[in-house]
Amino acid sequence: MIGHGEALSGTELPFVRRSWITQLVQESGVVRTMELAETLHVSVETIRRDLAALEREGVLERVHGGAASVGQRLSEEPSFLDRSKLGESAKSRIGLAAAGMIPDGSTVFLDVGTTSLQVARALPQGFRGIVATNSLPVATELASRPQVELLVSGGQLRAGDMAMAGQHAQRLFEELRADVAFLGSGGVHAVSGLTDFHLDEVVVRRVMMRNSAQSWALADSSKFSVIAPYHVADWAGLSGLVTDEEPPAAIRSAVVQAKARIVIAER
Q1: Which pTM value belongs to this model?
Q2: CATH number, domain 14-70, options 1.10.10.10, 3.40.50.300, 3.40.190.120, 1.10.530.10
Q3: Mind listing the pLDDT tens digit for each residue in 186-202?
Q4: How far apart are CA 90 and CA 60, in angstroms?
């Protein structure tokens, strides 16, 4: 791999340029059209044709100003039980890290999902505050906490996760203003941002984000570079990501460029 600004031989040949671009996008996750044109000493139009050809081959996906590595696209979410067992230790650590970000006396939105449940479990027994949730497992976890004012949304129930969505769920979060929201995730990707599998729950999640001073995505490392069917938010719309491992360079770069933060749970 050559450094930025170094000359390449044979760049007049499309297969040479495209091979180099393929290697670069695999290593860095994101490439910029202008930088490629300068480095390869060809026109922007030539690079755009190269990116279009590589996109047709499934090597990358074009985005505004360049291209990104292709994320793993999933159309169906594993069951709640399977997800509860998968990465349980990582999710527990994420839960502890997120709970540590909640000052006593806060109003908190806790979304659906196995990692949100770990946040509820990690809240100190003496925590005083308001917790609003559309997750029955989260509500059950916090129901016996006498100093927690627990608000449960109601709405259409999705079996398995025991998650609630629809207009009734939206209404609760529209009427509240939270200090912080912790959001479940189907996948997190450098370009696609936060995505999920259930469109009606995406709508509820966006209401949470709109009515919260901070909004954090919860995602263990198995969600890195995964793209679920429905877009929730770009990184610029989030306060940051709470996770268990250092994310790929492309995700870190996208988060930092959006002026959001990454919190990595301690081992």
Answers
A1: 0.77
A2: 1.10.10.10
A3: 999 988 899 999 999 99
A4: 30
